[in-house]
Amino acid sequence: MASTVKTSGYKKILLKLSGEALAKEGEYGINTEVISQIASEVKEIVESGVQLSIVIGGGNIFRGVKGATQGMDRASADYMGMLATCINSMALQDAFERKGVHTRVLSAIKMEQISEPYIRRRAVRHLEKGRVVIFAAGTGNPYFTTDTAASLRAMEINAEVILKGTKVDGIYDADPKKNKAAKRYRTVSYRETLDKNLQVMDATAIAMCMDNKLPIIVFDMTTPGNIVKAANNPQDIGTIVWTGETVFA
Predict the structure, then answer these.
(1) Which residue, among 142, 139, 94, has the nearest Cα to 114 in the 3D structure?
(2) What's this model's pTM, rounded to 2 decimal places?
(3) What are the structural domains of the chain?
């Protein structure tokens, strides 16, 4: 696979987790078994010497866009969604620390009793000390998704890659649930992702990654062991969004 983009041996990773993936299928809330599995894999990655930060969505509790479509003020709905990410961040922190992984939650919205305020240099320092950093409350601004927050934080801490954990094993050229002939991409360019509206992340997040040549690896986080695989050898799992050519699996 010829490209200038690094595809293995990452030392600084931002892991973007879907909030919906923390809940049982068709339900809301937090599945403690899923969080425990994530914690075990995070521990393995950190113990290998990788600096790991996390952005977690809040869709298992509340989705701002959905609230807005049901008549709520969009800004208010988005702030509620940010608070949902804080709940998930605290749940992850608890699970990680029970596994012996030192963790800090840094929130874009000040909540001194439960988290530290987001300061870029502080985040970098925590990572240098081997702590997992969880970025909560998105960007702290309405109208921006946690995908955009993940891209922004990844740039700010100089992450080498974004690992995007979902319930699907990569990116397809059609909905695999509706079209059995859908083909999975092994690699796909940023431009094709935008042009074909492949819905990997929102357009703002993809554009930021494209401008900064930051690769995105989309993989199925519900399969045990996949987070570690994505961190160690992403060419064997999911789909890589990058500057290189488009290749089907």
Answers:
(1) 94
(2) 0.93
(3) 12-248 (3.40.1160.10)
